[in-house]
Every structure is written in C-alpha cells, then in structure tokens.
Amino acid sequence: MTDAVAVRGRGPRHQQLPEEVASYVRERIISGEVKPGEFLRVEPIAEAVGVSNTPVREGLLALRSEGFVQLVPRRGFVVAVFTPQDIRDLFWVQAQLAGELAARAARNITGDQLANLEQYVEDYRNAVAAGDEERIGSAGHQFHRQINLAAQSRRLALLLGGVVSQLPNRFYASFEGRTAHTGELHLQILEATRKRAARKAQTLMADHMLQGADALIGLLDERGIWADAASA
C-alpha cells in the first residue's frame, strides 16, 4: 500500500491509517490466519499494511477495545480467545439490523433501485455458476448495498456497517458460498421486495445473515481454531 506511505501524516488520511491496520489484523484474526494466544508483532504488520509503527499500535489498541486482542504488560499484544458464540453474537446483531433495513427497502425502493437489485441477483448467480469467488463477493456486496440504500435509513445503515466491519471481508465469498441456498435467498428477498412484503423481506434477510454465522463457524472449525483456542 504505497499510497498509504506517500500520504502518511496528512490530515484525514493519517487518521484512517489505524483503521486500516485494525481492519487488516481483525480480518486475520476472525478468518483464523492468526490464532488465539498468538502474539502480534508490530513490525511485520507495519510492513504488510505499509505504515509506520505508530498507526499499528493505535490500530491494535482499537482492537483491544473491541475484544479482539489483549495487551500483556512488557510483552505486547496477543490475540484474545473467542468462541463460536462470539461469532453468532456478531451475526445476530447483523441479522437484526439487516432485517430491518430489508423491511424498509421493501417499502421505499424505487423502480431504478429494483432494476439494480435484479441485476445483482443475476450477477451473483452467474458468478456462482462460473465458480468465481471474487465476483461472488462483489455481487453479494452490491446486492446488500442496494438493499441498504433503498431503505433510506442512513443511521441504521451506519450502525450495520460498524458490525460488518468486524467480519472478514476477504473471506466473504468463501463462507457465503458455503451457505447452500444463498442465491435462492437473494431471489426470495428480491421477490419480497418487489411485492412490497416488508415483513417477509425482513425475515428472509435475518435468516440469510444467521446462516452466514453457521458457515463461518464451520470454516473456522475446519481450520482448527476452536481447538487452538481451547489450548490457549
């Protein structure tokens, strides 16, 4: 990220650097790349993100406030133990917020937004058929983004964004693809939205989010992260 280095220390961009660090480390933790009990060295993180050591420490302190890491005196930052229930809790909150946004989208969506939603459903199905994980992730993101925009509830969407930021974006396609009926759920949400069936859209979206929890837990279980957490 040479652009980060080039503009380091320049106002708002400088303030974003700890957030970039936090996002990078958070994703490595929640995806199982680094395990509970493992110490996080500042220098390799700084090199990977392309920043100095100071934003790294600030980003790790932010993760400490979120419960992802702990600060051990005279030793540094260590990955905190987390459980399947922690994952379920994150997705439960996401389900409540995303479900309400879907309900509001069904009431407020415009014709152009509905056409966009239809296109994203088709894009997702084509990406799945092609086995293209990057396109799966992109189409899925656009589908949910359009729902959130159509809801016309900026504050609620911002709250959802705060929760989603604690989930692994780079592994979205991996566990999204493991949810067997994701494409079908997208289509059902589209149909409920088209019919202005707000409560139906809410229920479908909440169920979709909760299935994501099961998929991510399964992915992490395969990586042995829960066994590692128990030993830590």
TrEMBL record:
Which InterPro entries does the annotation name? GntR_C, TF_FadR/GntR_C, Tscrpt_reg_HTH_GntR, WH-like_DNA-bd_sf, WH_DNA-bd_sf
Q: Which residues form the HTH gntR-type domain?
A: 15-82
User: Transmembrane segments in this chain: where?
Assistant: none
Report the domain of life of the source organism.
Answer: Bacteria
Gene3D superfamilies reported for this sequence: GntR ligand-binding domain-like, Winged helix-like DNA-binding domain superfamily/Winged helix DNA-binding domain
Query: Where does the signal sequence lie?
Result: none
Statement: the UniProt record of this protein carries the keyword DNA-binding:
yes
Q: Tell me the keywords, alphabetical order.
A: DNA-binding, Transcription, Transcription regulation
Give GO MF terms, alphabetically: DNA binding; DNA-binding transcription factor activity
The record's listing under SMART domains reads:
FCD, HTH_GNTR
Tell me if Calcium is a UniProt keyword of this record: no
Can you name this protein? GntR family transcriptional regulator
Q: What is the lineage of its organism?
A: Bacteria, Bacillati, Actinomycetota, Actinomycetes, Pseudonocardiales
